[in-house]
Amino acid sequence: MFGTAHPQPPHRKEVAMQIVQQKQRAFAGTELTIDHPPSGEVAPPPDAPPIRFSVSYTLAEYMSILRAHLGFILRHMPKGKQLRQTWIPLELGVFAALVAWMLDPGWTRNAFAAVSALSFLSLPFTVDFWIALIAPPVFFLKKRRMPVCEFRVDGDGIERTSRLGTFKKTWDEVTMVRRYERGYLLMFAKGGIPIPFRCLDQQQLEQLRGYTSGRGQAVAA
Question: Where are the domains of the chain?
Answer without folding.
Answer: 51-212
